[in-house]
Design a protein that fits this description.
The termini are far apart. The longest helix is centred in the middle third of the chain and has 24 residues. The chain is mainly alpha-helical. It is flat, with a radius of gyration of 19 Å. It is built from 5 helices and no strands. The relative contact order is 0.12.
């Protein structure tokens, strides 16, 4: 079994689990585009790309190597993503996304803190109002009374 096949099987299982979890999301009656459309798209793409990866050829004896310096960045970013997922519903999209963008930019080495703060606030607020007011897609408001 090649390395691509070893990686593609868990990815395909993850995609199926993700699609099943997406199917269990609550449906809203009066919304044209429901909140499950984007997760269905992501899960479908992950399943498709894992099948493509399974049948693609790779070099014989290929091994995965990640440098220790890269791990010092990858691990905190992955942990931050997990924390983002856990806090998204109870805290809300805007606050969680602002914190995620700001902290992730710091972890990735971005040094302009004022610009980072402005971007971290403007994008989530703009996306929240775009999705909730104009596209009629529900996003978690959390603790903010928006």
């Amino acid at each position: 079994m090649t390395m691509n096949q070893k990686i593609s099987i868990p990815l395909f299982i993850l995609a199926i689990g993700y699609l099943l979890a997406t199917w269990l999301l609550p449906k809203y009656e009066y919304i044209l585009i429901d909140a499950d459309i984007f997760p269905f798209l992501l899960g479908g793409l992950l399943a498709l790309f894992s099948v493509i990866l399974f049948f693609s050829k790779d070099e014989e004896g290929a091994k995965i190597y990640i440098a220790k310096d890269d791990l010092k960045v990858i691990v905190p970013v992955v942990l931050l993503m997990l924390l983002y997922i856990l806090l998204l519903e109870p805290v809300g999209f805007v606050i969680t996304t602002v914190c995620f963008i700001f902290i992730c930019s710091l972890l990735l080495g971005y040094k302009k803190h004022v610009t980072n703060g402005i971007v971290a606030v403007l994008f989530p607020v703009a996306f929240y109002f775009l999705f909730t007011r104009y596209l009629m897609i529900a996003l978690p408001s959390g603790i903010l009374p928006i």
